[in-house]
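Chain A, query sequence.
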Amino acid sequence: MTIKIEMIEYDEKKAWFVYQLSSGDVFRLSYENYIKLGIHKGQSISSEIYHFMEDEDQKNLARYRGEAYALYQPRTTFEIDQRLKQEGIREDVRQDVLNWLEKRGLIDDSRYASRYAQEKSSTKSWSKRKIFAMLRQKGLSPDLIHRALNNLNDTVESENIKTILDKKYGRRDLKDPKDFNRTYQALIRRGFPSGLVLKVMKTKVEEDTDNEKF
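Chain A, predicted structure.
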């Protein structure tokens, strides 16, 4: 079957040329490929050119979607790859998009891990274990996550435990064994090390006891 170019339009917003074919297909090509092909309205195209246009169309659409997804909020390489996979983009095209986004600085897993760890630790008082688990779900490697966590202040775990004790459990009487144990278990479930939890809680009990003397 002979396939002809029925219409060519330029999309200024997306900066690509839109080709409508007699087969019903619609392909989007870059300016560079528009010049390279040099085909015009009414012209017949070979199967080789058709498949070239088909491949370029998927790549351009994938880049557009990947860029939009990365710009909406910071994402990991894994998250963007999964999103493109869900949209039916084949593996080689997804890899092309990921390389393209990385070169443009729109994805950087190391930077993402560092910022995520700092933010969740300082604003959410998350434990390092919870941050590790969440970053693993986002497809980051253990080594990369450990480097990000090592950048946190050495006393961050203790400070976060103190913050949670004050904000979440400030009304509990830690001198009461039941309240102490309930609070201890709650902090353990948040991912804080058991030894450190006990140390911080006992220190708080001692401080509260000393304050009561005055």
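The two ends are 95 Å apart (CA to CA). Strands lie at 3-11, 16-21, 26-29, 44-45.
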